[in-house]
Write a structure and sequence with these properties.
The complex is a heterodimer. Chain A is mostly helical. Chain A has two domains: 103 residues, Alpha-helical ferredoxin (Fumarate Reductase Iron-sulfur Protein, Chain B, domain 2); 56 residues, no CATH class. In chain A, 50% of the residues lie in helices and 2% in strands. In chain A, strands 1-2 form a two-stranded antiparallel sheet. Chain A is globular and about 60 Å long. Chain B folds into two domains: 118 residues, Up-down Bundle (Glutathione S-transferase Yfyf (Class Pi), Chain A, domain 2); 158 residues, 3-Layer(aba) Sandwich (Rossmann fold). Chain B has 14 helices and eight strands. The longest helix of chain B has 17 residues. The two termini of chain B are 33 Å apart. The chains are: A mainly alpha, B alpha/beta. At the A-B interface, helix 3, helix 6, helix 7, helix 8 and helix 9 of A face helix 1, helix 2, helix 3, helix 4 and helix 10 of B.
């Protein structure tokens, strides 16, 4: 950790210069250091157009500067709609949606998970899918001449246990700011 | 041609008419779609939370298809992207295949890395072909004007899709619509995302993204919006009334799934294609062909 003299509370005083290497080691984060801040990603981003909280160019700059806690505890990293428009256009092949995934993966291990994503993961762990296929849903499927879908999946629950995601979810990973 | 149909999470519960029409049309065109009830979530929703879990979920689904000796045909574009990404990674990265195989082994599954994944519409476009589709049309839909929404993961990231269509200037879906005889409507916001992936993170932003396109298509003169992804349907169909009422607008823009459009053109009844089960009932549209 490196400390920088600050004039007021809004100035970032604690930077982790190794953060960019940590992100680059994460699947999807490999190309982050190629970013030269051209802003092509943000200028074509439909989320950024509507919501000033999300600015992919700025998020990448924050990572490169080492603003580790500020980035990982934020809710803006969860705002990428994964439309891949920036991914197609980035002249430096930074693979921005994958960088956002890398940041979210690290955030989850650090105890930060957006409640919507926590809810989705828990549903999949429990049901094997995002929506429970209950008796009523299966009756409706049968009426339509479509095949019934089994409830739950022990193998999916086993996968969550095997990879450690079940522990991360039950370990009380908190929300985001 | 025989493929395993991958329904994903949303289609078999919330978009039954998409599943019904896709299976009906496939049958007519000689594409046999086989259900594998053990398929689970594709892995996409947990990719941003836990990469390894997403890859293992996808790999297990690929293994289930391989056990049956079948390639995968998907209906949801997000499922298409994660299953394609993982199938390609396992086909080219031996070290990754080794690691994944060890984990699959603990589940009593094995995977050799050879399953191919394609979106249903891409199968129609590349494997069935426009010519066969055109010759199957018995009732050209020249009374319809259709605005297609490609969505994101059907085309992007383009590096995993062998560049079968251009991510910035796509044409496959418009060509498939034209093959039914319908008029293709071009509109300014055609390439924009529906916003579905962030609906749970910031509903206002997500619905504003969907609204921009609903406004644009409504003023374009289209009779309906053509969709190929169940989550886009949640945004433009299931949420259409909510988006309209929060902005004092009354949209009446039916959403259709491409196999429903094709099915109508092939002379299949709208009941068999589930058209009146769509989130927005296409009454005015159906009156045009009756």
């Amino acid at each position: 950790m490196e400390s920088v003299q600050s004039k007021d509370a809004s100035v970032v005083t604690i930077l982790d210069p190794k953060f960019k290497y940590e992100v680059a080691r994460e699947p999807g984060g490999e190309n982050i250091k190629y970013c030269f801040q051209c802003g092509t990603c943000t200028s074509g981003c439909k989320v950024a157009e509507l919501d000033r909280k999300y600015n992919p160019r700025k998020i990448i700059r924050m990572v490169i500067l080492g603003m580790r806690e500020r980035v990982l505890a934020s809710d803006f990293i969860w705002l990428c709609a994964t439309c891949y428009t920036c991914h197609e256009r980035c002249p430096q092949d930074v693979r921005i949606p994958e960088v956002m995934n890398a940041l979210k993966n690290i955030a989850v291990r650090e105890g930060y998970i957006h409640p919507a994503f926590r809810a989705q993961a828990e549903l999949i762990a429990g049901n094997g899918r995002l929506y429970e296929v209950d008796e009523l849903a299966n009756e409706r499927r049968t009426d339509w001449g479509l095949r019934e879908i089994p409830q739950g999946s022990p193998e999916v629950a086993e996968i969550f246990g095997m990879t450690g995601l079940a522990d991360l979810l039950s370990g009380g990973a908190g929300g985001t700011s | 041609m025989k493929m395993a149909v991958f329904l994903g999470c949303t289609v078999p519960v919330r978009n039954l008419s998409y599943e019904l029409s896709a299976k009906r049309v496939a049958g007519e065109l000689g594409l046999e779609l086989v259900d594998i009830p053990e398929f689970s979530c594709c892995g996409y929703p947990v990719k941003s939370v836990h990469h390894e879990t997403a890859y293992l979920l996808a790999a297990r689904n690929l293994a289930l298809a391989e056990e049956k000796g079948l390639d995968i045909c998907t209906l949801c574009s997000a499922c298409t992207s994660v299953l394609t990404e993982v199938a390609r990674a396992l086909d080219t990265d031996e070290a990754l295949l080794d690691t994944v195989s060890k984990n699959l082994g603990m589940l009593g599954r094995r995977y050799s890395g050879k399953v191919k994944v394609k979106h249903f519409v891409r199968v129609l476009y590349e494997d069935i072909g426009l010519e066969t589709i055109q010759s199957a049309v018995k009732r050209p839909l020249d009374m319809f004007s259709i605005a297609s929404h490609y969505g994101c993961h059907y085309l992007k990231p383009s590096e995993i899709y062998d560049k079968f269509d251009h991510p910035e200037m796509p044409e496959s879906l418009d060509k498939l619509v034209a093959a039914t005889g319908a008029r293709v409507v071009k509109y300014r916001t055609q390439k924009d995302c529906c916003g579905g992936a962030i609906l749970g993170v910031n509903e206002e932003t997500a619905l504003s993204m969907a609204r921009a396109k609903l406004d644009d298509i409504s003023s374009s003169g289209a009779d309906a919006i053509n969709l190929i992804c169940p989550f886009c349907s949640v945004m433009y169909g299931a949420n259409q009334r909510k988006i309209g009422s929060s902005h004092g607008v009354k949209y009446n823009l039916p959403i259709l799934y491409y196999p429903q459009i094709l099915g109508l053109a092939m002379g299949i009844s709208h009941e068999e294609l589930g058209l009146m089960q769509n989130p927005i009932k296409p009454r005015a549209l159906l009156a045009k062909i009756s």
